Amino acid sequence: MAAFNIEKYINSLPDDIETIDVSNKSLTYLPSLERFHKLKELYCYNNQLTSLPPLNPSLQRLNCSYNQLTSLLPLNPSLQSLDCSHNKLTLLPALNPSLQILYCSYNQLTSLPELNPSLQFLYCHNNQLTLLPELKPSLQRLWCDNNQLTSLPELNPSLQFLYCYNNQLTSLPELNPSLQILYCSYNQLTSLPELKPSLQILYCVNNQLTSLPELNDSLQYLDCSHNKLTLLPALNDSLRELCCYNNQLTSLPELKPSLQILYCHNNLLPISINDDYLNEEQKNNINNTFQCIERFKMMYFCLKYKAKLRDWLWLKVRLPKIERLYHPNNLNKLLHVGENMTEEELDDVLSIW
C-alpha cells in the first residue's frame, strides 16, 4: 500500500471544509492549515507527529493524542475540546477561556496551568503532578489519579466525579455537596471527611483507615477493603454492594434488605452468620458461600498434597506388595511345584502369577 500523501490530501480539500481527519496515517508532520477559515474539528491522533502547525482561529475541537508531541503552540480562543493525551508533553500552554474539556493524561507533566473558568472536564491522570491548581466553579469531573499528589485543592461546589486514587494523599479536603463518585483508593489516608448526601459511590481501598464516617443515605456502593478497619458504621437503606475484605473486622453491622453483594472475607468474622436481622434466603446465601470457601480450601490442600500421598502409597504400600507377589523366589516355587503339572495347568498358574 502506498504511503499516505498528506500534501496531496490537504491540497485536495476545499477552503470551507469544517472537519479534517488524518488520524492513523503514520504522519511525521502536518502542513499549514491556514486557508481553512471555517475549520472546526481537527483529528490527527495516532501518528508520529512531533509538532503541530498554528491552530486556526475557528477551531473548536482538536484531538492530537497518541503522538510524540513535546510541546503545544498557543491555543486558539475558540477551542472547546482538547485531547493531547498519550504524548511526551512536559508543559501545557495557557488555557483559552472557551475550553470546556481537557484530556492531557499519559504525559510527563509536572504541573498544570491555571484552569480557565469554563472548564468542565479535566483528565490529567498518569502524569507526574505533585500539585493541582485552584479548581474553578464550572468543573464537574476531575481525573487526577496515578500522579504524585500529596494534597488536593479545595473542591468546587459543582464537582460530581473525583478520581484521585494511586497518589500520596494523607488527607482529603471537605467534600462538596454535589459529589457523586469518589475514588480515593491506594493512598495513605487515615481518615475520610464527612460524606455528603449526594455521594453514591465510594472506593477507599488500600489505605490506612481505622474507621469510616457515617454513611450518607444515597450511598449505593462502598469498597473499603484492604484497610485497618475494626468496625463498620451502620449501613444505610440504599447500599447495594459492600466490599470490606482484608480488614480486622470481628463483626458486621445490621445488613439491610437492599444489600445484594457482600465481600467480607479475610477478617476476624465467625465462619457462620445466623443473625436475626437476616432473612432465611440471606442466611442461606451467606452460609453457602462460607461452605463453598471451606470446600475449596479442602480441595486445594488435597490437590497440593496429592503427589506426596501418591509417592507415599507407592513406596510404602504398593511397591512392597508387588515385590512380595512377583519376587523371583515365588516364581521358583511355582516352577518347582509345577514339575508334575501338565503344560495347560502350568500356563494357568503362570498367568495368575
Verbal overview:
The chain is α/β, with parallel strands linked by helices. The protein is built from 5 helices and 13 strands. Helices cover 20% and strands 11% of the residues. The mean pLDDT is 88.
Question: How are the secondary structure elements laid out?
Answer:
Blueprint: H1 6-11, E1 19-21, E2 41-43, E3 61-63, E4 81-83, E5 101-103, E6 121-123, E7 141-143, E8 161-163, E9 181-183, E10 201-203, E11 221-223, E12 241-243, E13 261-263, H2 280-304, H3 306-325, H4 328-337, H5 343-352
Parallel strand pairs: 1-2, 2-3, 3-4, 4-5, 5-6, 6-7, 7-8, 8-9, 9-10, 10-11, 11-12, 12-13
User: CATH-wise, what's the superfamily of the largest domain?
Assistant: Ribonuclease Inhibitor
Helix content: 10-25%
What is the approximate shape?
flat
Most strands sheet: 13 strands, parallel
CATH architecture descriptor text of the largest domain: Alpha-Beta Horseshoe
Report the span from N to C terminus: 76 Å
